[in-house]
Amino acid sequence: MIPNDFSTDGNSLHHNLGNKGSVCTIRVGSRSLPLYPLVIVGLGLLNTILLLTAIVIGIYCENNYLPSLPTFLSIGGQASEVSAPHQITVQALIVEVKQLQVMQTDAIKAQEEAQQALKKELMSHQQLKLQLEQNKTLSNNIQRQLETLHVEKATLQSDTSDTEGSCGRCLPGWFLANTTCYFHSKSTSNPLKNWHDSRADCIRRGANLTVIDSLEEQLNLHEALPRLDPSIRPWWSKPGGVWFGLSDIQSEGNWVWLNNVTLQGEGYWIPGEPNDYGQREDCAALMVMKNPRAAWFDADCQGEKEWLCEMEPN
Question: Could you tell me which residues come within 8 angstroms of residue 84 by beta carbon, excluding any fewer than 6 positions away?
């Protein structure tokens, strides 16, 4: 036997049957409500709660446990794989990091290659610098050799000229003027000498200091010997001149040649000479300037000068 009603905690459930079927009601307080609509509403609420719970659990699991699983959507009855936005970002970052790693590796390799190339360039630069220094040293040596060769060439040319000019009648280093061979010490590396040592050098060469016994000879020597320009410096400003074979050593004012011939006439003295300055100027010297008739002066025999030797040609 089925009870007609059932009450729980003050609520009663009535089951009424009529011609059209049975109607179930539930009493809530003093009111009776139909049972089926309430059941439907309750099921809807439960379904909503379950759906929300499922969504929350799904999101939580996707964020924490399944970051790489794709999301599938049904489009036109076919499953389509759609990546979540955060998944796209992570994949892009991974790809970018890999690209950056490749770029870093390439950059390191390029840097190492550049360092190697720089090292090679530095070594090449050092070798080139060393080669330049060696070339500079070699060039300096060659330059010195050329200068030496030029000097030797000039000496040979001078000797050749002297030999050709004298037709072989004078010794090398001597020059022929008219019918006499002369040796001028300036054409050699001989140091300056006093009058007595100059005469001794001429004697050692088989000659003697020059005796100028004619105007013709004076003119010839004036043309052959180096000329001093008085406009550059006064002839008396420095010790200079060329010793020749005239002196008044035996008797002051009595000028005698080395061949024991007394000077005839006035000679070819520079104006104001001889002046026996200091009462010791007893030897004659030659200073070639503009006027060949004014070229002699007296000087201290101990002074050092160039000298001029003469000898008969061969």
Answer: 62, 71
Each residue's pLDDT tens digit, 222-252: 999 988 776 666 666 666 899 999 999 999 9
Output the six-digit token pair for 112: 């190492």
13 touches 24 (CB < 8 A): yes
Cross-strand pairs, 305: 193
CA distance 195 to 219: 23
Of 261, 234, 250, 259, the closest CA to residue 283 belongs to 250
Residue in 248, 265, 233 with CA at minimum distance from that of residue 300: 248
Question: Rounded CA gap, 243 and 201, in Å?
Answer: 12
Task: Report d(CA 201, CA 57) in Å as an integer.
Answer: 131
| Average of per-residue pLDDT across 77-101 | 68
Q: Please, what is the end-to-end C-alpha distance for the chain in angstroms?
A: 184
Is the Cβ–Cβ distance between 299 and 241 less than 8 Å? Answer: yes
Cis ω before 274 (30° cut-off from 0): yes
pLDDT of residue 228: 79
pLDDT band at 191 (very low <50, low <70, confident <90, very high): confident
Long-range contacts from 86-93, C-beta under 8 angstroms, 24+ separation: none
Residue 196, pLDDT above cutoff 70: yes
CA distance 181 to 206: 12
- Token pair 């409500």 is found at 33
